Amino acid sequence: MALQFEVLARFNRARASRLTLPHSQCETPLFMPVGTQGTIKGLTSTQLEDIGCQIILGNTYHLALRPGADLIDELGGLHSFMNWPRSLLTDSGGFQMVSLLHLADITEEGVTFQSPVDGKPMLLTPEESIAIQNKIGADIIMALDDVVKTTTTGPRVEEAMHRTLRWIKRCINAHKRPTEQNLFGIVQGGLDPQLRDTCVKGMVALDLPGYAIGGLAGGEEKDSFWRVVAQCTAGLPEDKPRYVMGVGFPLDIVVCSALGADMYDCVYPTRTARFGTALVPEGVLKLKHASMAADFRPLDETCSCMVCKRYTRSYLHSLVTKEAMGSQLVSYHNVAYMMKLSRDLHHSILEGRFPEFVQGFLRKQFPQGDVPEWVCNAMEVAGIDISMCCAPLK
Amino acid sequence: MDVINAMQPDIWASLPDEVPSWVTHKRNKQSVERTLNWLDSCISLKKDGMESGLGCIVGGNSVEERGFCAQEVAKRDVSGFCLSGFGLGESAEERGLLLEAIMKNLPDEKARQISGLDLPEEVLQAVSAGIDVFDSTYPHSLTMSGLAMVFPLDMEECLSGRTSENANDVGSDFTKINLRAVAYRNDTSPILESCRCYTCSKHTKAYINHLLNTHEMLAQTLLDIHNTHHYMNFFQAIRNAIQGGYFADFKAWFASRRQAVNEGILVSSAA
């Protein structure tokens, strides 16, 4: 184990914690931006540090293709290669089983991918994934899991869950750097509570440094999504970090944090930036819209990031989707927004005002009081009163 | 002028009727007349309170027309001069003659700007002739081709043999390197050891090579930073040389290095 996790404060299921990793100390709940190919699109390492990122993601599958695991190893690991002094987390390549399914062939041995770059086959076994991740050198590495699309039904879901449990053991055996890199197990089981329960128990028995809740954020009903998160957080140990993979929207992060999750990753903030969408407390701002052309306010008046200090919506409107700078500036703001959200979650729990924070957040996002039912249901389980945010039922 | 008045720039130039070097004599004369008329219009349409603009000087490849145009523009209420229509097909020799024809008709105390020249040698020639300000897309055009500027700026360092050459692969010469080259795949040195820009302080050639191969936006950001920084330093070196009284040596040294390349040590990529 190469981390320390200390819960500093709670509100019901929510926790504000300190996570100490080999390369940095972080406060959770926290969001991790995704730098798939060893870069967060358009942002420099210094900008990410300025914004307050503590952990960023790299992707095993993509980095193994280019520039290659051996090269990264030769050059001292990914931290050194991209000159990122803080923490890194690598995904195992599992998600590509879903996103690149048309190029993948899954067996008990592993996943054979056809490279989208040159068509050559690449066999990713649990052992190979861990070997690559050992070379990349991230602070947190993810087990190779058998991932199915959340909307899949039938025996495949169960097969994937059991295989995930068999693969995690192979991952543990293959892991050569347990004192420097933390191997997280990933709970699968689709939307089936029985399968999820079996998987949670199987994972917990292995006493891993941390656990992820996988197989979500793939288009499933929100009402099913939160229930799986709630079930898993209830079953995972209190003193270890819980990472909900692929989340996501600020609202989802607030709900999952209320239910007891600590870490999140998603391409959403940076990807949506490249399409001209900025994240703001009210929700989103579509910068391409004609109304933005003469709007001389900053993206978010409550935001103190460099972009909000220097640029107007009008200027950004002229740049987005046309100039690289548009992507870069909106990405900068969106990542800064997610970091602020992380800090707000951590501090509001720490300072005993988490319910007030949640209420304020929901009021801004749903000024008409039309908070979605799934959020209300989830908050009930989380023990947070949001009745004042919801318009009265007709 | 509506646009210029709305933008409120610190410096502005009148609208020239710019023509390339191969047009007919008649068309060239017409461009001079038109440019002068347009200059007069621009001046009269200028918003009150705004600075006078730069007067554009055209005249194509004709020494006569260039001289005439320069004389005429110098008579107007301008804050300086914008030499237009260069870098459009004239040779270095032709350019030298044209610049001379213009400069002898311009007052010493007003600024001279030129557009369309980018290469270090072109810049040095123009500085020799009396140009003060350049605008150029050279740093960015290099970036878009995955190239980084590496020509040495410190004449003394170089002559003493203390710097090392960096020209070992396809598409490179002593002015620039091609970061897409496989040779840089595992090169952990910065683009230029002596460079203090953000990119050279923080990143390696290997990383930029990877970013270029994966078509990542950060490649352009990092290359733009370095190329702009280096080009700006080139101008600083020119200023130092002029102030230090050794500009002629500096220019000669630079040209001699280029000559060495042309004599066939390496294939120099079209710049």
UniProtKB/TrEMBL annotation, chain A:
Q: SUPFAM superfamilies, alphabetically?
A: tRNA-guanine transglycosylase (SSF51713)
The annotated active site, in chain numbering, is D91 (proton acceptor), D265 (nucleophile)
Enzyme Commission (EC) number: 2.4.2.64
Q: Does the keyword Metal-binding apply?
A: yes
Taxonomically, which superkingdom? Answer: Eukaryota
Q: Looking at its record, which EC class is this enzyme?
A: transferase
Q: Which keywords does UniProt give here?
A: Cytoplasm, Glycosyltransferase, Metal-binding, Transferase, tRNA processing, Zinc
Subcellular compartments: Cytoplasm
Q: Which GO terms describe its biological process?
A: tRNA modification
Glycosyltransferase: is it a keyword of this entry? Answer: yes
- Could you tell me what reaction this enzyme catalyses? guanosine(34) in tRNA + queuine = queuosine(34) in tRNA + guanine
**What's its job?**
Catalytic subunit of the queuine tRNA-ribosyltransferase (TGT) that catalyzes the base-exchange of a guanine (G) residue with queuine (Q) at position 34 (anticodon wobble position) in tRNAs with GU(N) anticodons (tRNA-Asp, -Asn, -His and -Tyr), resulting in the hypermodified nucleoside queuosine (7-(((4,5-cis-dihydroxy-2-cyclopenten-1-yl)amino)methyl)-7-deazaguanosine). Catalysis occurs through a double-displacement mechanism. The nucleophile active site attacks the C1' of nucleotide 34 to detach the guanine base from the RNA, forming a covalent enzyme-RNA intermediate.
Q: Which family does it belong to?
A: Belongs to the queuine tRNA-ribosyltransferase family.
Matching entries from HAMAP family are given as: Q_tRNA_Tgt
Assembly and partners are described as: Heterodimer of a catalytic subunit and an accessory subunit.
What name goes with this protein? Queuine tRNA-ribosyltransferase catalytic subunit 1
From TrEMBL, chain B:
Domain (tRNA-guanine(15) transglycosylase-like): residue spans on this chain: 1-259
One matching Pfam family: TGT
InterPro entries assigned to the protein according to its UniProt record, in alphabetical order: Queuine_tRNA-ribosyltrfase, TGT-like_sf, tRNA_ribo_trans-like
Q: Which GO terms describe its biological process?
A: tRNA modification
Q: What is the protein name given in its UniProt record?
A: tRNA-guanine(15) transglycosylase-like domain-containing protein
Q: Which organism is it from?
A: Ceratopteris richardii (Triangle waterfern)
